[in-house]
Design goal:
Layout: H1 10-13, H2 15-21, H3 25-30, E1 44-51, E2 54-55, E3 58-59, E4 63-70, E5 73-75, E6 77-81, E7 84-87, E8 94-102, E9 108-119, E10 126-127, E11 137-142, E12 156-158, E13 166-171, E14 183-190, E15 201-211, E16 232-234, E17 248-257, E18 262-272, E19 294-303, E20 309-317, E21 322-327, E22 336-341, E23 344-352, E24 357-367
Parallel strand pairs: 5-16, 7-17, 10-11
Antiparallel strand pairs: 1-4, 2-3, 6-8, 8-14, 9-13, 9-15, 11-12, 11-14, 15-17, 18-19, 19-24, 20-23, 21-24, 22-23
The structure holds calcium ion (3 copies).
C-alpha cells in the first residue's frame, strides 16, 4: 500500500499505515470529517428476483433472474482555504492552511502543487530550502497528526529537492479509511520580511490533481460506459485555477501585509516680536524672527497605514537658540505629556488609528 515512488514523501504517502502500525489509527481517522461518499467504487451490486408458482396444485421450479452492475468511480476533490491572513512586517511562522478532501467514492492519490504570485506590490516570499526558513522565505508542511492545525515539530515538512513544491500522497474516503484519512491539510508557513511594504500581497494557489492510487499517473476519465465494469467519472467543481470536471481542484490563500505608516509634520511661525505672555499670546501678523520674539512649533503625527501605531513616543530637542516657554492652549492630543526638561520635549500616544488618525502638539518658545 505504501510503495509509492515519491521518496521525499514516502512518510506522508504511508502515513495511514504508519499510524496504524503505531496503534494510532483511531486518532488519525477520528480527525477526518464524516462525508456522504456513497458506495465504494468497484462494488458489484447484485439483485435476484424469484417467481414461485403452482400447476394443478403442484409447486413448480421457481423462475429466477439476476441483474448485476459495478459501481463506477466518482472523482471529486476539494481544496478549502481560510482565505486571507493579515501579517505584520517581521512576523514569523505565519500560516496559510489548505484542507484537501477526497469526496469521491474510492481511495485516490493526489499531486499537490503550490504556486505563489505577487499581486500589486508583492511580498516576494521564496521557497526556503532548509528546516528553518529565513526572513522572506516560506516552507510547506503536511498535517502529520491530522488535527487541521500547524504543529511545529510534529507536522511533516516537505523538503523539496530542487525548488519544486510538488507533493504526492494518497487519501482514502469516508467508507474506506482503513489505511488512509479522507482529508489532509497542507500548511504554507512564512517569515514575513521586516521590509515588507504596507498592502503588499502574496497569493498562494494550492492545486490537487487526482492520481491513480499508489502511482504518479494522473487519473483520466473513461471513454466507455459499461454496466459490468468500473469506469472513472470526473465530478469535481471549478476551483480558482482549474475547470469543472477535470480531476483537479485548487484554491487561493493570501498573505496581506498591514502596518502603520507614520508621517511627521513640523511647522514654525513667529507669534509676536514683543510678547506679553508667549504661551498664550495671539498671533500677530508679519512679525520678524528677532531675538526676544515668541515663536511657535506645531508638530503633527499622522498614520496613513493600514494598522494602528502603538506606543508612539515623540522626542524633540529644541535648538539652543530658543528657550522653551510652554505648550500652547490644550492643543496636544497625546496621551502622556507633552512635558519638557532641559530643552527636550517628550510626549507619548498609546495608539494612532490607521487610515489617517493623527496627534498634535504646539510648542511656544522665545528666541534668545
Ligand atoms: Ca497538525
Ligand atoms: Ca460502469
Ligand atoms: Ca476541477
Amino acid at each position: 500500500m505504501c510503495e509509492l515512488s515519491f521518496s521525499a514523501f514516502s512518510k506522508v504517502a504511508c502515513r495511514g499505515a504508519l499510524a496504524g502500525g503505531l496503534g494510532m489509527a483511531g486518532i488519525l481517522l477520528a480527525a477526518s470529517p464524516a462525508l456522504a461518499i456513497g458506495t465504494e467504487a468497484g462494488t458489484t451490486v447484485s439483485n435476484t428476483v424469484s417467481v414461485a408458482y403452482n400447476v394443478g396444485g403442484v409447486a413448480q421450479t421457481a423462475a429466477n433472474d439476476t441483474a448485476e452492475f459495478v459501481v463506477d468511480r466518482k472523482i471529486d476533490v476539494t481544496v478549502a482555504t481560510a482565505g486571507t491572513n493579515q501579517v505584520i512586517p517581521g512576523q514569523t511562522a505565519e500560516v496559510l492552511a489548505y484542507t484537501i478532501t477526497n469526496t469521491g467514492n474510492g481511495e485516490q492519490g493526489y499531486d499537490i502543487d503550490v504556486a505563489v504570485a505577487g499581486g500589486g506590490t508583492a511580498i516576494g516570499l521564496t521557497l526556503g530550502a532548509g528546516a528553518s526558513p529565513a526572513s522572506g522565505e516560506y516552507v510547506v508542511y503536511v498535517d502529520a497528526n491530522d488535527n487541521g492545525v500547524f504543529d511545529p515539530g510534529t507536522d511533516t515538512q516537505y523538503a523539496p529537492s530542487s525548488g519544486s513544491t510538488t507533493l504526492a500522497f494518497n487519501l482514502g474516503h469516508a467508507t474506506n479509511t482503513t489505511n488512509y484519512a479522507a482529508s489532509t491539510t497542507v500548511f504554507i508557513v512564512a517569515n514575513i520580511p521586516a521590509s515588507a511594504a504596507d498592502g503588499a500581497i502574496d497569493t498562494f494557489t494550492v492545486s490537487a490533481t487526482t492520481l491513480d492510487v499508489g502511482t504518479t499517473t494522473v487519473t483520466t476519465e473513461s471513454a466507455t460506459n459499461d454496466l459490468a465494469t468500473e469506469e472513472t467519472v470526473f465530478a469535481d467543481g471549478a476551483g480558482t485555477a482549474d475547470a469543472a470536471t477535470d480531476g483537479v481542484h485548487s484554491n487561493e490563500g493570501v498573505f496581506e501585509v498591514v502596518t502603520a505608516t507614520l508621517v511627521v509634520s513640523k511647522t514654525m511661525q513667529v507669534i509676536s516680536e514683543s510678547p506679553s505672555n508667549c504661551v498664550t499670546d495671539a498671533v500677530v501678523a508679519s512679525q520678524y524672527a528677532l531675538p526676544g520674539a515668541c515663536i511657535e512649533y506645531t508638530i503633527t503625527v499622522t498614520n496613513n497605514g493600514t494598522a494602528n501605531a502603538e506606543n508612539v513616543a515623540l522626542t524633540d530637542v529644541l535648538p539652543t537658540e530658543v528657550t522653551f516657554s510652554g505648550f500652547h492652549s490644550s492643543t496636544s492630543t497625546f496621551d502622556t505629556g507633552p512635558s519638557e526638561a532641559a530643552g527636550t520635549v517628550s510626549a507619548t500616544a498609546n495608539s494612532i488609528a490607521s487610515g489617517g488618525g493623527s496627534v498634535q502638539l504646539v510648542i511656544r518658545a522665545l528666541i534668545n
